[in-house]
Specification:
With 203 residues, the protein is α+β, with helices and mostly antiparallel strands. It has two domains: 16-90, no CATH class; 100-193, Tetrahydropterin Synthase, Chain A. 25% of the residues lie in helices and 34% in strands. The longest helix has 19 residues, at 134-152. 22% of the residues are buried.
Length: 203
């Protein structure tokens, strides 16, 4: 006699998940920056949410669209996920549009600590109006490096990131660099705030 086939009920995993509203930190007015589903809220901790700058107040335009902010989920209350800004990144294709022929492109990386003890890596690019030799390139890097170390130590992480994201920080550097050679553009193309991972206790 043939055995009857038994059918197992399949559970729709999506139905067991809850949607959580993701909000920016208080310094960005707790603006909603997305929604994420999860069956267990602990799964969301340390998840990184990337959003364009214009969503939290950047001026409309190519720079605002091509600048992505990185937020890490650090707390869950009810169905709201709270975040912390951990850095930003400018799309490389946008950087390339600034670096046309007959210009020098100088990359530089600086590791510094803010007034409130946050360690941050700042990656910048200097684009000159004309091609230059190695000697002025070195001079530009030195000024870039000195300016960052001098300014950042007197700023909190929130003050620094606001200045970086809205252009003031790069403008101040560019004014100093112009004393050496004509500079077309200074762009802070990436920041990485260290030690932002939340430790999760495993049962």
């Amino acid at each position: 006699m043939a055995k009857k086939r038994t059918t197992k009920k399949t559970v729709d995993k999506w139905k067991s998940k809850i949607w959580y509203k993701v909000v920016a930190p208080e310094e960005y007015e707790n603006k909603e920056i997305g929604e994420v589903p999860a069956s267990d809220p602990k799964i969301l901790l340390n998840k990184i949410i990337k959003v364009p700058l214009f969503l939290i107040g950047g001026k409309p335009g190519a720079a605002s669209i091509n600048t992505k902010l990185n937020f890490r989920i650090v707390d869950i209350k009810g169905t709201t996920a709270f975040t912390k800004l951990i850095g930003h990144e400018v799309d490389q294709s946008f950087i390339k549009t600034l670096a046309r022929r007959r210009r020098s492109v100088i990359d530089h990386v600086v590791d510094v600590e803010t007034k409130d003890g946050n360690k941050i890596r700042i990656k910048g690019v200097i684009i000159t109006a004309n091609r230059i030799t190695q000697k002025p390139k070195t001079a530009l890097r030195n000024i870039f490096n000195e300016h960052i170390h001098t300014v950042v130590k007197d700023l909190t992480i929130n003050e620094l990131m606001h200045a970086v994201l809205f252009g003031k920080f790069a403008e101040q550097i560019q004014q100093n660099l112009k004393k050496v050679v004509p500079v077309r553009k200074v762009q802070i193309n990436k920041t990485e705030i260290k030690n932002t991972i939340i430790r999760i206790e495993r049962k």
